[in-house]
Design brief:
The protein is an alpha+beta fold. It has six helices and twelve strands. It folds into two domains: about 120 residues, Immunoglobulin-like (Sandwich); about 70 residues, no CATH class. The longest helix is centred in the N-terminal third of the chain and has 34 residues.
């Protein structure tokens, strides 16, 4: 049959040659596999950090407050002691921007937050630490060009940083509307705000008309501003007057 070797027709020398080729191929594959496994094992034994910037918010009484942080995970088997988080900024003028890397190397337009000023921060395999981005930096995040985590060996672990457009989207937040009503028996506050892609309405009122210290509330979320505007108008013109008059006990 075509494609098959008739071993019965081979001489002893030919059979030995074919067998040698087969065993040699197997040996080569085994050797490559062994090298790959050794490389993988060695790679896992090295110090390795995975870093990311997270732009979260904490909402209190309808007011979103930035809770931005740098998250550092140890994904290697060797413990790593962290030293600082370094921020490199874009120079304000175009001329210096062209040579910003040289300026960064000279320590200009670059500074760091010391992570070990209280006690050393060490991460073992599988551990993670979260470091808040200091409030003094939040107002200038749009000028940040590069962020790195420094360990005590001097190695820099880069934190993937969003582009200006991505950063503006991830940190987008603000108040849109505020309505406050108070009577002898009822207090109600309605706050409208936006957070990234969504719009929210928080309604907050005292649960029992006779008790102004016991409050309850409800939050509405919308993915379109027109839907937000319709609900806000419904609350303003219909539900809120009924709540203040005692005709209803909650805003739904």
């Amino acid at each position: 049959m075509a494609g098959w070797i008739d071993f019965s027709a081979l001489t002893g020398t030919q059979a030995v040659a074919i067998w040698g080729a087969v065993t040699g191929t197997i040996g080569t594959i085994t050797g490559i596999l062994g090298l790959w496994l050794r490389f993988r094992h060695q790679k896992r034994d090295q110090a390795r950090l995975k870093c990311e910037a997270v732009f979260d918010f904490e909402v209190s009484n309808g007011v979103p407050r930035p809770k931005y942080k740098i998250v550092v995970r140890c994904v290697g088997r060797r413990p790593v002691t962290l030293d600082a988080i370094e921020y490199s900024y874009n120079p304000p003028d175009l001329k210096n921007r062209l040579f910003r890397r040289r300026l960064w190397r000279d320590g200009k337009f670059r500074n760091a937050d010391d992570l070990s000023r209280l006690k050393p921060v060490s991460l073992s395999e599988g551990e993670k630490k979260e470091f808040s981005i200091e409030e003094r930096r939040v107002a200038h995040l749009d000028k940040v060009a590069k962020v790195c985590v420094l360990d005590q060996t001097g190695r820099r672990w880069q934190v993937p940083w969003p582009s200006s457009k991505q950063l503006a989207h991830q940190t987008r937040h603000g108040e849109l509307d505020r309505i406050e009503e108070e009577s002898s028996h009822r207090t109600c506050k309605v706050v409208g705000y936006y957070l990234k892609d969504n719009f929210y309405i928080l309604a907050h009122w005292n649960k029992e008309p006779s008790n102004k210290s016991s409050f309850t509330g409800r939050t509405f979320r919308f993915d379109r501003k027109d839907a937000y505007a319709r609900k806000l108008e419904d609350i303003r013109s219909d539900l809120l007057p009924k709540l203040m008059a005692g005709k209803i006990e909650e805003i739904t």
